[in-house]
Amino acid sequence: MGWFGGVVTASTSSAPRPMSPTWSVELSCGALWTVGPGAGPTVTVAGAGPLTGAVLGSHTVSEDDLRAWLQGAWRAGPPSWAGTYAVVVAHHGGATVFADPVHALPLYFCEVEGSVVWASSSRALSGLTGTGVDLAWVSGLLVDPAGPHLPERSAFQQVYAVPPGHRLNMRRGGQAVADRWWSSPRTLPRTEAVPRFGKALTGAVEVRLAQAELLSCDLSGGLDSTSLCLLAEQRATGARHLTAWTVHPVSRDHGGDLDHAREAAHGRLGMRHELLALNESELPYSGLARMPPTDEPAPSTITCARHIVAYERIRIAGSTLHMTGDGGDALLMQSPESALRSASRGRVIRALRDLHGWAKLDRRSPVGLLRQSPRAGDGVSSRWLTLKAQTMAAPGGGRGVVGFLRSDAELLALRGIGRTAHADAQFAGAFEVRLEAPFLDRAVMETALTFRVTDRGSPWSYKPQLVAAMRDVLPEAITRRRTKGGTDADHHLGLRARLSEVSDLLDGWLAGHGLIDPKALRQELYLAALGRDAPWGLLEPVVSAEVWGRVVEASPPTEWTRSRERQEAG
Question: What does the DSSP assignment read for 110-169?
């Protein structure tokens, strides 16, 4: 799993030499390095007078682009370049790192021996601080999986997160301080927002084409993945080819999402369509022992068996970068939770109408739909979470360097998905697949936010922004989709088949730290295995956290050494 970072050293000559990862590659601009095998981030470095800047991640920023920005008002933040990336500027007395607004590429930092070390991996920094998992952070995850948790903290003690849309100012010998640089864009008329959104999404795909010798993507038959695939197929040039992967149960070779995926791929000469049939051994809750260590519990933990099979096939096929449609739902749809926000703002009639619409689409009652929500409330979660967990999850304990504004509320769900999608990318990286989610790119997100609330998705209009922007790209049958296939049935079946193994997990890491009541959780899982409507958004993060905690504590930490020792070792 590749990652990157850097250091701002202490100001005194008597301070110890700075630490860096043992197996890192130092970049030409000084105290900045990349770590890990395989295709790492794209790195652009340029200087302008006393400033040296670097862009790291997925992007096509040139040295001229970077230099032009450095020569202007660079402290206001980087332009909305296509891609997902971090930007660092070394200047007199220290450095400034800009984190992206969606947390699609989270940044972390710690303070050691008077130096500030920052990186794109919190787990790697925990190897430097020598600290373990932050149980307060884990408790926050269990209490409110969709919430912001502790926005200034990571899953590891003494390793802090740079909040999304903020810059970390690091001065030699001084404390690191974060402040806000990004602000939400203003809304636009639909006639202006649609072409801007289409251009941004096209640019996001072109960034991936520029970085991949062989590009692959998910093709579920839904609007999000199909848009990415067909944009890539249209713009692939020369010897570049695209492989689209569609997952389906081995028992079903037609119908639903599979038919829509075939419709999308039909007649596309630049696209090879591969079907990946899954059997019972790839049901949810299978293969949990194969999860690799990540910065935090990966959303794909419960379904890791199917992902591992897919990653192994994708790698064998030679893909150097794989695109997923993750983030599209959070970006483009107003979820059932948005109905609750509308009600809290006095729009009760609108909230009730939308809630009934969501329930009808999901073929359940409004009450049952709300119970599925990760924000369903303490009445459900308190059945298995201990008082200790609920107390530790309470706000507090941060560095107090930044506060979120009320206007951030609309972005909280998207930022949570962005941050956890990074954990999924680390999961894929352990199987040598570079996984990326273009819908979480800054430029795509910003243009999506320019749509007025009335122009965004609802139970009555499924992703109208994407349908309008991709009208010339998507087949008509895809644009008419109003929803996509559900997976609840697979989760019930998988839990029923693996209930004994999952139950055995519950007396382990979380219970050992006093965060869950295993008996209460077993009862809830048993009822879910029988087929009863289950609060998956609250249950499954507990299982994922248990698996993650065990794996992290059993895995060796990242090794660090001092600069002189590295030079002598080399």
Answer: EEETTEEEEES-HHHHHHHHT--B-HHHHHHHHH-TTS---TTB-SBTT-EEPPTTEEEE
pTM over 0.85: yes
Q: What is the CATH architecture assignment of 3-183?
A: 4-Layer Sandwich (3.60)
First to last CA, the chain: 22
16 or 125, which is more confident: 125
Encode pLDDT of 80-133 as tens digits.
999 999 999 988 878 999 999 999 999 999 988 888 999 999 999 999 999 899
pLDDT digits (tens, 9 = 90+) for 132-149: 999 999 999 999 887 655
DSSP 458: B
Query: Taking every pair of C-alpha atoms in the chain, what is the biggest distance, in angstroms?
Result: 71
Nearest Cα residue to 207 out of 441, 449, 427, 447: 441
Rounded CA-CA distance 508/542 in Å is 12
**Per-residue CA distances from 257 to 136, 149, 260, 306 (Å):** 40, 34, 5, 17
Tokens 């008082």 correspond to: 387
- Summarised one tens digit per residue, pLDDT across range 191-204 is 999 999 999 999 99
Which two three-digit tokens encode residue 343? 């009600």
Dist. CA 393–CA 526, nearest whole Å: 26
With both helix axes pointing from N to C terminus, report the angle between 190-211 and 442-449 in degrees, rounded to the nearest 10.
170
Nearest to 1 by CA among 488, 325, 433, 537: 433
β-partners of residue 111 are 116
**Locus of tokens 């956890």:** 420
Find out if CATH 3.40.50.620 is the number for domain 190-331+411-479. yes
Instruction: For 31-45, write each residue's pLDDT tens digit.
Output: 788 887 655 788 899
CA–CA gap between residue 265 and residue 233 (Å, rounded): 10
Exposure b/e, 174-212, CB count within 10 A at least 16 = b? bebebebbbebeeebeeeebbebbbebbbbbbbbbbebb
246 phi/psi in degrees, rounded to 5: -120, 120
Of 421 and 24, which is predicted with more confidence?
421
Three-state secondary structure call for residue 90: strand
- Contacts by 477-481, CB closer than 8 A, 24 or more apart: 477/260, 477/263, 478/221, 478/223, 478/226, 478/260, 478/263, 478/264, 479/223, 481/222, 481/223, 481/260
Q: Which amino acid type is present at position 56?
A: L
- Shortest CA distance to 97 belongs to which of 174, 161, 147? 161
Domain boundaries, the chain: 3-183, 190-331+411-479
- Please list, in sequence order, all residues whose beta carbon lies within 8 angstroms of the beta carbon of residue 461, skipping any fewer than 6 positions away: none
Cβ(421)–Cβ(295) under 8 Å? no
- State the Cα–Cα distance between residues 106 and 508, nearest whole angstrom: 29
Amino acid at 171: R
The one-letter code for the residue type at 235 is R
Please choose, from the candidates 236, 180, 245, 246, the residue with its C-alpha nearest in 3D space to the C-alpha of residue 216. Answer: 245
Cα separation, 124 vs 103, in Å, equals 18
